[in-house]
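Predict structure. Chain length: 206.
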Amino acid sequence: MRSAAVDVSYEGYGKFFPILEKNEGQNEIERSYFASGRINVDASSEHSRLTLAYGLFGLYRRRSIVSSAFTSEEYRIVDLPKTLVNRNEGQEIIGQNLDRVLYTHSLGQVDFLLGRQPIFFGGGRMVNPTDVFVPFTILDLDREFRRGIDAVRGRWALGELSELDVGVVLGKNAEQEKNAYYLRLKGHGAGVALEWIAMQYLKASL
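Prediction complete.
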C-alpha cells in the first residue's frame, strides 16, 4: 500500500501602522499604533489540502476609532477569545484570530470545502455591496486576507470560465436561525462575464 506524498509549506508576515487622526473641532492630533502578524500553513496531497492560519494583532491608542479588527462579528460556530489583553479601558489591546482551518477535497471537476475559509462576492477592496458575510469596512487597516468564516461548500467547474458554487455558512453554535445559505453561478458569453447570486442570511433573501 503506497501512501500519498504530502507537501507542506508555510509563510508569514508582520506589519506596523502608525496612525494620525485629527477630529473636527480639536487642535490636537491623536496618535495610534497598530501592528499585526500572521502565519499560514498549507499541507497538500494529490486530492486533498489542509490550510491553517493564525494571526495576532496589537493596538495602542488614546481615543481612536480604529477598532474593527477586534469588534467585527463573523459567522463562526466556535472561536478563540478575540481579545487576549485589554488594558487602560481599551487603550492597549492585543487580540488573536484563528482565521483558517480549511479542508479541501477534489473529485474531478468538483471541490468540497469544509471549515473556516474566506467567502466573498465581487472584487472590490474598499466597499463591496455584494460582500455581505464579512465585508471590509472603511476602518479596516489590514486587508491582506479576508477574514475566514465557517462553511460547507461545493464548487463545480462547468466549463473553462463557468462555475457553480453552493454553500452553507454556519453561525454561532450552528443554530439554524444564525446560518446563511447561498448559490452562485458564474458564466461567460459574448465576451461578457456574468454572475448570478441567490442567498439567505439574517432572515433576508437576496
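Summary: The chain has a mean pLDDT of 84.
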